[in-house]
Structure formats: C-alpha cells, structure tokens
Amino acid sequence: MTVCLTGLGVYAPDRVVTGADVAAESGVPEDVLTEKMGVREKRVCPPDDDHATDMCVEAARDALADADVDPGDLDLVLYHGSEYKDYVVWSAAANVADRVGAENAFATESYTLCAGAPIALRQVRAQIQTGDVDAALLVAASREEDLVDYGDADASFMFNFGSGASAFVLERDAGDRTRAVVHESAAVTDGSFSEDVVMPAGGSKNPPNEQTVRDGLHTLTVTSVDMKERMGEVSGPNFLSVADDALERSGFARDDLDFAAITHMKRSFHEWLTGELGLGEDGHYYLDEYGHVQSVDQALALREALEAGDVTDGDVVLFLAAGTGYTWSATALEWRA
After folding, report:
1. What is the residue range of 29's domain?
2. Most CB atoms within 10 A, among 48, 114, 297, 301?
3. Mind telling me which SUPFAM superfamilies this protein's record contains (predicted)?
4. What separation in angstroms does the CA of 79 have from each of 1, 11, 147?
5. Do residues 244 and 192 share a domain?
C-alpha cells in the first residue's frame, strides 16, 4: 500500500507587515529583525476577517482542486493548526468539513503546536495504512500574531509570528494523481519546556476576568529566564535526531535529501541546520517573507520550492518542525511529478 499526498493548498492574508513596522512598534532595531530574526515581512489578518476556519477553507479548496477530489469522497477532515481559533472549546475541523462539503467525513483535531505538520501526516498515514481512512483532508491555520505583545522584550523570539493556512489531501494508492509518497516519521518531546511559553490568563488556572484583561495577561510570554540557554543545548541535536530517524526509517540518508521544509527560525540557526543536513542553496526556503506561521510553515516552504522548480520528480523532501512543549518532528516524502 502507498500513502499518497495528492493535493496541496496554501493561503496567506493580503495585509503585509514589514520588519520596519515591527521595529517601530517594538523598539528592536530593524536590521536585527530582518537579518538576525528573519522578519523581512510577514502576513497578518485584519481583526474582523480571515479567522482560522476562513483561511483553512480557502487552502482546502485549492488542495481539493489540486488533488481532483470531490469533498464528498473524504473520510476524514483533520485540523492540526493553532488552538487560537474562531472560538474556544470548539471544533474548527467540523466547521471546515461542513463549509467545504465533506458531508461523509468525520472531523477531528490534533495539536502539536508548531511541530504539527509532520505529526499530522504521520497520524493520517497510519490511519490510511490500517484501512480506517481512504481519503483525508488535513488543514491548519494560525493567526497567533494577535497574541504577541511587541512591548514584551521577553517574547521577542515570537515577533516573527505571521498568519496563514495550509491544506493537504492524503489518499491510498492514488496512481498517477500522486504528487508525493508519504514515508516514515520521527518525533521527540522534552516536557521540561512545557510551561516556558504560555498565555498567563484564559485557562482554568487563571480564568479570564476584568483584572486579567487590565493586567495584559492575554498575550504569549516567556516565563523562564533561562529558556534560551536550555533550548540552545538541545534544539540542534533534537532537530538532527528526528531528521535522521525519519530518513533512515524511510530508507534514506542525509545524502539522499534534496529539500527540507523547515519551521521558520532565526537565520543563523536555519543556516546551521541546513548546513548540517548537507543542503545546497536550492535545498531549502527561508520564510522571511511570511514569518513563522505555526504548523503552516512546511506547506509554505514547499509551495515556494515547487514554484521555483527546486523540488522535482524523485526528490526526497523532509518536513522538519519544532513547537513549544517542546516537540521536534520530521516526516519524509518522495516527490512525484
């Protein structure tokens, strides 16, 4: 049995915020934002439009058209995007399924934050292999830029947050409609980072009220003063570990890797990581015109690579991601023209 990626869709809002704009609001020098942090520009949503499900629906329609799949033939709609969505305690997956016409699919959600794309592919691939699902739509969206306080210096590594959505169609044995064969995955979690990045109010520990709003506790912040140092010790090795494991389980090695779609990160770390993986200039795409769009990053990088002709028939592609929690994940694919 072959698990095939048959459709790809992405969506980005029209509104552009530049590194200069973020510099003016945050006080961080523009050259630091653009060169070090990789925020040349990013897309953001207007307050009253482009909610998570709106963006997912746009990306989903493109992916379904790309796959030439009728939404009525879907067995599953999986949302693996941000928990910050249209409403709290609410199924974005069910809403998207209804709006795209997937009346025969069940809808569910999976959260691994920014590490979500490789793990969502891993989960649905397993469901297809067991025979539980024949055709699935995977959607993700993020507008966590809304949760960033540019006056909070402790949260500066989140100043790259942008908005957008992605969609994949996965099917069993799709024949000549196959765009990529989905291979094996790997993931690792270090839970010691689980409370280092939080929104202090809004959950059961500190429910929202007038005082929490007045105190500005509804934005993301870093609660640990030594997170950067602790992360620096483990992030590189964990990225390489999941990359190598996913490739090896798929029958590949670093020398076989042609393109890696990687979570947006500071430029120097991106360059170090792609160097360690042995990737040339056309073997990766740096998302400095999108920023970091949670689990949408991999689809954005892949779409840019396809449009540039940097991913072609037979190429080995690696989705490589990391998200607060902290989880590192990877899934290998083999491209088909």
Report:
1. 3-177
2. 297
3. Thiolase-like
4. 25, 15, 20
5. yes
